[in-house]
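Could you help me review a protein record that somebody else here produced? What it holds is a sequence and that sequence's fold in token form. I need someone to confirm that the token line plausibly describes how this chain folds. Take the sequence as given and treat only the tokens as open to question. This is what I was given:
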Amino acid sequence: MGNYQGTTKLYDFRRGTALVDKVFKGSDPVYARMSLNFDEQGGSSVTNKIVYYQDSYGTLPSSTRTYYDFDGWYTAITGGSNITSTSIVNEIDNHTLYARWLESPSSPTGLTYVDNTQTSLIYEVSNPNPYSVRMYFEVNDSTPDANYEVVPANTTTEIEITGLSAGTFYTSYFRCYSTQSGQYSSSVSSYNTTQSAGATNWVFQNNSLNGSAYSYNTSVSKPPENFFCPTSGSVDTWLTSAYPPGNYSVGHVIRVYTSLKSGSSCGYWWFIAQ
């Protein structure tokens, strides 16, 4: 007849039981068959397996997860021991192994040229990864590893590369880096552009009480006038002094908001760098 001690099924030597869970010699286990469960921790599903006390774990499955590299199975979510196919089963009950993951960042996306000054290039770029990365950037270096900005998960940001020379052709490179795994993105994005020598003056384009009447790159506010709304010439003089055109590329449009000290609006003025 079968013998039971709590949830432990003991072997009946007289009858012989085909499906034996555990065999003890006194209080020492000599045989145990159990279910090995896998917690993929966000990875693809794998199939549980049967393992045996004091046998090796044998072939273990691999899970996959986008933006990560599989780093093995562990006895705990954090810490714990790494279990491999040659590890020996020291458990006598069903137990679980947990997947461990290393961040494997994808390369930047959506790289777009925005603007430039005499000494800088400005880009918009996105981090497609579900975790923060260092966005490394450099000109004429296809493996940038010096200058970076931290970009949050799934976020688009604007990056300015400075210290450049006017009138020079540059290739700008960007790549993502994970501090958790020490891995760079597998590919590098680039964008080619010629650095502008900068504009020489601001040229009046339009004015309107409607601030959205015309497109622009930059919006600024002029200090209010005393009694009369300014002329385009006076706005031009102030703009040239406050925002030297040489710091902007040809074609850059600035929108200037003007008002009186009384609080009355004089409207918006658009100037283009030429």
Q: What stands out?
A: Residues 202-273 form one domain.
